[in-house]
Write the structure tokens for this entry.
Amino acid sequence: MLAVEMSCPWMDNRLAKDKEKTTKYAALRWELKQQYRGYEVKQCNVIIDVLGGWSEDLNAKMEELVGERT
């Protein structure tokens, strides 16, 4: 399952937005783990700041999720 939510925070509060999204989707992750017990549930928060920047580890996370097609 892929959920996309767009947000454009200022550069200095990108970490706070990441924590906010992790907390916001905690119940969804739990429910997916209950429904699909044999699967691993991962969350990748894609946050693009107002100047178009993103976190340094986003490329690595995306490659982990979808492979080298990123």
